[in-house]
């Protein structure tokens, strides 16, 4: 399998933290409308999770984009975090990109838990790729963990070491020839339980 825990493409990183005077949530403005305005997408393109991350309001938003590569289209799932700052403005921070892996990537869940030795909670992202093939069907999953936002950085730092403890891409699948395979970490609760077992 060729899924790589990549940060978003360099073109996106180059603009992820650009200053924007209108990056303030308007009175009564819905999170989806705000995210669409910042990302330059339509609201219907976006999935939204509005959460408190280490006391700061954070709007996680993901969308699918398509690129033409050679003679076919390839889809990518882009995930961003819009993080409210103490002065009331917001930062746009790139989180990760889900590439195709036998199916189109989805963000199955986001959550928080301690995954290093400081007091802050790190970000958990569970990616999912639905699979429908002749010989098997089900879904691939992958857990990716990220550090808290760093000042001046346009993207979150991927915590490769602890992420690898979740086994990379796993399959929750049924085979045409019989026999099922299971992936243990399909939920935030399961990831948190494993992190605690690992001593975090």
Describe the secondary structure blueprint for this structure.
Blueprint: H1 10-15, H2 31-39, E1 47-53, E2 56-69, E3 72-84, E4 90-99, E5 106-113, E6 122-132, E7 136-146, H3 160-164, E8 170-175, E9 180-181, H4 188-197
Task: Describe this entry's structure for a reader.
By secondary structure, the chain is an alpha+beta fold. It has helices spanning 10-15, 31-39, 160-164, 188-197; strands at 47-53, 56-69, 72-84, 90-99, 106-113, 122-132, 136-146, 170-175, 180-181. The strands form 2 sheets. It has a 5-stranded antiparallel β-sheet. Strand 6 and strand 7 form a beta hairpin. Mean pLDDT is 90; it is low at 6-11.
Please identify the structural class as seen in this structure. alpha+beta
Helical content band: 10-25%
**SSE topology string:** HHEEEEEEEHEEH
Major sheet: 5 strands, antiparallel
What is the strand tally? 9
Strand order of the largest sheet: 5-6-7-8-9
